[in-house]
């Protein structure tokens, strides 16, 4: 195979990674087709072109987080002299949901127009491999077979469900929450990864009772000191946490609510009634649905993801980017960057590989957590405790004083090598706008930021980001990291 193919590149999956690669390849003169197809969720939710981030991920998540923050801001506003009357302020889930979905529809539309303008052929159909050089898909016009020189697997992932009675019938996931027609009400969130915590955070912020079932530890893979501060802050804001618990069953009650039974690690059983059960127990890659074995592409035995060094699978003309990759960060900018660089290597004569190190990210919990680089645990594991210096500080955001907002979890730390100018290995920040704070420091770390350079940087006053330029207390010193006054 390989000769006389119809396309230069066929991309399976029109999400962050697939679309970025397709647009770049087309700009470089390649003939490209993109297939995108969304299988409805068990309760029937479906959406348009653009993948997870736009439809059921980053974008609706950030908008609902913002809605929750505004609720807080209303209370702060009073202390700043805003007279809000009448005093009983309500939130309409329906209005929020409609506004969020309206924005998503407009992005779906713009994406479609952009593909047309850029001459990327878009096919609304589910792609399946017939053989290593052919993808087949059912469209409204009938079956189509597409042959290509190169293929890109960018199918992403979908939420997993636990194998317990009632999960599929009565549970929902992040694929459903952002378009839920009824207010979610009292909600149990199963899973304490970043998606679970973010959903619990904005639901509580919008006024709903929220309980999180944590199987082992919160935010596994993240710095655990920071993760525990995030959880403590959420508890202060009224989110309940049930530690070392897993769900056992979900049943419908006579009045249409949900009876949930869970169990702790001592096998003790507990139960409560909820309106919504939201599973956030991780995501599985959509490789099986692609009949990937017919192409000869190997997947990891533990999670069906694709181990593809330099985005190339074991079948040399088949590539993969995004969430489908084994042990790579599941983040939109990672998928986009890798897709674009791959297109340049395939069609633009580039040799630049994707760098997956030191990718910054933010957990959008009520107090946000922004991070770039290594956790304290990882740094110690990699370099040894004696070779690491950790600077830390609690700080007081100026704008927190008047409303007397809690500052007890406003904390940051810098993990660095101990020798010489102390190369920075990781930066961690809990507070408002954590993503905005961390992004610039991520660029500084790309330029080999040191603690010496950080300390000689003049801050912007009064900001919270300037706290990074004021660090001077090491954990090793044992000095109090609380601000003087
Ligand atoms: P996707 O965007 O998932 O796109 C894959 C597309 O392929 C989908 O449209 C899928 O339906 C389609 N498809 C699958 N199989 C086939 C097939 N066989 N044929 C045709 N089409 C197919 N990342 C961030 O950077 N920041 C965040 O704040 C953030 N928040 C998130 C919040 C939530 C709730 C979730 C779920 C994710 C979040 N992410 C966030 C992660 C981000 O959405 C993903 O990393 C990103 O979308 C991955 O892009 P992708 O191209 O790999 O796959
Ligand atoms: P994560 O980060 O994989 O988190 C999943 C969470 O769900 C985590 O707290 C798990 O606990 C928990 N979990 C997993 N399976 C179960 C079952 N069966 N019962 C109860 N709890 C469970 O997924 P997210 O959806 O938050 O994020 C998706 C991806 O984005 C993630 O893979 C990251 O790479 C980035 P555990 O710690 O395993 O005990």
From TrEMBL:
Binds 1 FAD per subunit. Coiled coil: none annotated. GO terms for cellular component: cytosol; mitochondrion. Keywords: Disulfide bond, FAD, Flavoprotein, NAD, NADP, Nucleotide-binding, Oxidoreductase, Redox-active center, Transit peptide. It is an enzyme of class 1 (oxidoreductase). It is found in: Mitochondrion. Its main location: mitochondrion. Its EC number is 1.8.1.9. FAD binds at residues 62, 127, 323. Its cofactor is FAD. The active site is at residue 461. InterPro entries: FAD/NAD-bd_sf, FAD/NAD-binding_dom, FAD/NAD-linked_Rdtase_dimer_sf, GSHR/TRXR-like, Pyr_nuc-diS_OxRdtase, Pyr_nucl-diS_OxRdtase_dimer, Pyr_OxRdtase_I_AS, Thioredoxin/glutathione_Rdtase. The keyword Transit peptide applies. It catalyses: [thioredoxin]-dithiol + NADP(+) = [thioredoxin]-disulfide + NADPH + H(+). Residues 359-469 form the Pyridine nucleotide-disulphide oxidoreductase dimerisation domain. Residues 7-339 form the FAD/NAD(P)-binding domain. It holds the Pfam family Pyr_redox_dim. One of its GO terms (biological process) is cellular response to oxidative stress. NCBIfam families: TGR. Belongs to the class-I pyridine nucleotide-disulfide oxidoreductase family. This is thioredoxin-disulfide reductase (NADPH). It comes from Callosobruchus maculatus.
């Amino acid at each position: 195979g390989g000769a006389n193919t119809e396309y230069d590149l066929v991309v399976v999956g029109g999400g962050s990674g697939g679309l970025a690669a397709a647009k770049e390849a087309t700009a470089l003169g390649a003939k490209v087709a993109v297939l995108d197809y969304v299988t409805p969720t068990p309760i029937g939710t479906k959406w348009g072109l653009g993948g997870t981030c736009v439809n059921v991920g980053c974008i609706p998540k950030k908008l609902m987080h913002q809605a929750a923050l505004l609720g807080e801001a209303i209370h702060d506003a009073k202390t700043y002299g805003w007279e809000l009357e009448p005093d009983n302020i309500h939130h309409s889930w329906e209005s929020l949901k409609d506004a969020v979905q309206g924005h998503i529809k407009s992005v779906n539309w713009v994406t479609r127009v952009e593909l047309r303008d850029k001459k990327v052929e878009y096919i609304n159909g589910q792609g399946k491999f017939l053989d290593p050089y052919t993808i087949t898909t059912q469209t409204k016009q009938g079956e189509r077979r597409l042959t290509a020189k190169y293929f890109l697997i960018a199918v992403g992932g979908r939420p997993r469900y636990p194998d317990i009675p009632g999960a599929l019938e009565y549970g929902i996931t992040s694929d459903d929450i952002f378009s839920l027609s009824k207010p979610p009400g009292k909600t149990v969130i199963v899973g304490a990864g970043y998606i679970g915590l973010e959903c619990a955070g904005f639901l509580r912020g919008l006024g709903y009772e929220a309980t999180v079932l944590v199987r082992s530890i919160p935010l596994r893979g993240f710095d655990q000191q920071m993760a525990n501060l995030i959880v403590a802050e959420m508890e202060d804001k009224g989110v309940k946490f049930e530690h070392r618990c897993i769900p056992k069953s979900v049943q419908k009650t006579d009045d249409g609510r949900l009876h949930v039974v869970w169990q702790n690690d001592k096998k003790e059983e507990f139960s409560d009634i909820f309106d919504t059960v939201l599973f956030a127990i991780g995501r599985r890659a959509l490789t099986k649905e692609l009949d990937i074995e017919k192409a000869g592409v190997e997947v990891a035995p533990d999670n069906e993801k694709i181990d593809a060094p330099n985005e190339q699978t074991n079948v040399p003309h088949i590539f993969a980017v995004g969430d489908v990759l084994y042990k790579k960060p599941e983040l939109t900018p990672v998928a986009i960057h890798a897709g674009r660089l791959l297109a340049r290597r395939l069609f633009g004569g580039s040799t630049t590989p994707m760098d997956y190190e030191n990718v910054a990210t933010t957990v959008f919990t009520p107090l946000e957590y922004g991070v770039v680089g290594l956790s304290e645990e990882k740094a110690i594991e990699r370099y040894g405790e004696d070779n690491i210096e950790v600077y830390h500080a609690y700080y007081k955001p100026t704008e927190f004083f008047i409303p007397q907002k809690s500052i007890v979890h406003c904390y940051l730390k810098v993990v660095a090598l101990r020798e010489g100018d102390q190369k920075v290995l990781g930066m961690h920040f809990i507070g408002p706008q954590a993503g905005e704070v961390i992004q610039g420091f991520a660029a500084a770390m790309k330029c080999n930021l040191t603690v010496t350079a950080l300390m000689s940087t003049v801050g912007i006053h009064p900001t919270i980001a300037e706290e990074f330029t004021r660090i001077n207390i090491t954990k090793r010193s044992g000095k109090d990291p609380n601000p003087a006054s």
